[in-house]
Fold each of these.
Amino acid sequence: MTTRKLALAALFISLSAIGGMIKIPLGIASIALDSMPALVAVLFFSAPLAGTIAAFGHLISALFGGIPLGPLHLIIAFEMWAVVWLFAKLHQAGKSWLKWAAFIIGNGVLAALPFYFLLSPAFFYASVPGLVIAASINAGVAALLMPYVLKVHGVSFHAS
């Protein structure tokens, strides 16, 4: 990895940390913009690296929030890695609409599924609406920013 790419990845992780500080309470969950930079990062990085940005972004966001779920945040970080990895793969394949739906469903519903069994069904059902809203806001902000990031970077945007 070149120094330039490493610096850019560090910038996206830092943006995830800043987004993680922006918390809007919503039931037992909170909305933060910690995954939005990782979604934008797919414009510049491979799927594994974009996923790594998302995982670190979540861990830093959890740290700012006082780590309420303790070591379970490692599971969530892995889930964030997987969801953004899939998002990046769909983006690279030109699946414009599918990538957004996959991110929102993956981050908002599927990522909460292990907690149905690990914590309780009540936790799952209480957290899913907030997580879907959070994923939708992160996706929406990323979708709005991506054309401008590409324009500044000097690449034309082709509705992906």
Note: Residues 156-160 have pLDDT under 50 and may be disordered.
Amino acid sequence: MIPLSYYLILSAMVFSVALFGLMIHHKNILNLLICIELLLLAVNLNFIAFSHYFNDLAGQIFVFFILAVAAVETAIGLAILIVLFRTLKNIEIDALHRLKG
């Protein structure tokens, strides 16, 4: 059986990569969406690891709801991204300032 610490280290590494991506690539909306998804996956990995370690299904239920919310967030984010690209021919965050009324 794989120890709990391995899962936690992997989750911390994925979370760190996602935070690093948020700090470095904060100009591109698509990169922001990908990094947010990585953050949620790191949290999900923690929930699954602790759920297995404590032999409790509550963590797995939380993961189900987090994945549902992440799917909705991705669908709405990509829809906004497509409309933004059709309007401005650009997906940079700096271009959003031109949309102010």
Note: The two ends are 58 Å apart (CA to CA).
Amino acid sequence: MELKAFLEHVKERRPLDTAEIYSFMDDMSDEARRITFELNGAYHTPDEIRGLLSSLFGKPVDPSFRVFPPFYTDFGKNITIGKNVFINACCHFQDHGGVTLGDDCLIGHNVVFATLNHGIDPGERSSMQPAPIVLGKNVWVGSNSTILQGVTIGDNAIIAAGSVVRTDVPANTIVGGIPAKFIRKI
């Protein structure tokens, strides 16, 4: 399987459940680990970090993009980052289904983006269902939050620290808790 075919497959939200797909995911995971080990294993200048992340993502990142390592991903090639984005330390991107961060997003420590889910039926447990996570512009995700597959977060929204977001978040709102619930409008 080639990257382009895989990205089309997950864009259509088709299950990840064949030997060919599993083999491709293993190969991509090896590449992602190689790059993240290099990123996380020593000091790098901001320009070097952006260079490593451009290699990891398979496309250039904007010069305004900032990350405080360590940074973790098990795929890397389905991450899209806007301008003036900041990602704090210890974030985990499970990006097979796609993670998009709009311009001016702030991501706190230890945030998890999980774009895959397993089948509920025990006979389908090894099958994975991909769905993208999309953050609009100027979204702030507080530390230790988890954003689950298929969630879209609207412009200017705030996710309170420690939240688990499993449904879409409207623009200009604050949500928090487990599961995350509406707190107030901004």
Note: Residues 19-40 form the longest helix (22 residues).
